[in-house]
Design goal:
By secondary structure, the protein is α+β, with helices and mostly antiparallel strands. It has one domain: CNF1/YfiH-like putative cysteine hydrolases (4-Layer Sandwich). The protein is built from 5 helices and 14 strands. The strands form 3 sheets. The protein has a 6-stranded mixed β-sheet with strand order 4-5-8-7-9-13. β2 and β3 form a beta hairpin. The protein is globular, with a radius of gyration of 17 Å. It starts with a strand and ends with a strand. The relative contact order is 0.19. The mean pLDDT is about 95.
């Protein structure tokens, strides 16, 4: 990924992604600790005026129209929603964890703090999508559901798509319980490359990057770029719910065609 600084903010872009996009760091906002400083989460205890200002700064830095921006109420599902424009009088469209659009210049935005941002672009059809994939969304196949929804709605071919797997909690930090291990095995019919065991105590660690890559590949996408940045290891750049023990903000990701 490339790190870009603009208007006092810093964000990352995938080298292979042809759409306008950015995965923003926590730097350059107005929120005070523990949400310092570019917190985009409106339900974590931060001042709503600060959150609104942070949103405006994010969209301005990327050069997209904040009045057209669309988001969802994230609920750890695999539901995909089509975005044609914002709903008047409401900050979000529906409860879902993936967005897609073929409207030029329409920004899609979501918020993260360890879960995985999945960005997808089909330059042939001029369509983009984004998903929020924690372990629940991952074992429900939200990445693949997004690809299939874009294929059904826009006639997108997975072979034409570019996908980016953004910063999230890395496999070395993401200890999970046996119920998660069972869910991963049920979804993927394998644990190879997805679950690692600590040789000392046998505890399990989930690789969200590998799992979502496998889901995208099974959906037919081959052009995939992985950021390889762990939020838990880079708390100066990103919020991490686990590393910061739940008292933290949410960083933003935006994509538009």
């Amino acid at each position: 990924m490339n790190r870009i600084e603009a208007q006092g903010l810093a964000y990352y872009q995938f080298e292979s992604m042809p759409a306008r996009h950015g995965i923003f760091t926590r730097q350059g906002g107005v929120s005070i600790a523990p949400w310092s400083s570019l917190n985009l989460g409106g339900n974590v205890g931060d001042d709503p005026l600060a959150v609104r200002e942070n949103h405006q700064r994010m969209y301005a830095a990327l050069g997209v129209d904040d009045s057209r921006a669309c988001t969802v109420w994230q609920v750890h599902s695999a539901d995909v929603v089509y975005a044609a424009g914002p709903v008047p009088g409401r900050r979000w469209l529906v409860a879902a964890d993936a967005l897609m659009t073929d409207k030029p210049g329409l920004p899609l935005a979501m918020r993260f703090a360890d879960c995985t941002p999945i960005l997808v672009c089909d330059p042939r059809r001029g369509a983009v999508g984004m998903a929020h994939a924690g372990w629940r969304g991952t074992v429900q196949g939200v990445s693949g559901e997004l690809v299939r929804a874009m294929a059904a709605a826009f006639g997108s071919r997975p072979a034409d798509m570019f996908a980016g797997i953004g910063p999230s909690i890395g496999p070395e930090h993401y200890q999970v319980g046996e119920e998660v291990v069972a869910a991963v095995e049920s979804r993927f019919s394998t644990l190879d490359g997805l679950i690692a065991r600590n040789p000392r105590d046998g505890t399990a660690y989930l690789d969200l990057w590998a799992a979502n890559r496998l889901d995208l590949e099974r959906a037919g996408v081959s052009q995939i770029e992985i950021a390889g940045l762990s939020t838990a290891s880079h708390t100066a750049e990103f919020y991490s719910h686990r590393a910061e023990k739940g008292r933290t903000g949410r960083f933003g990701a935006v994509i538009a065609w």
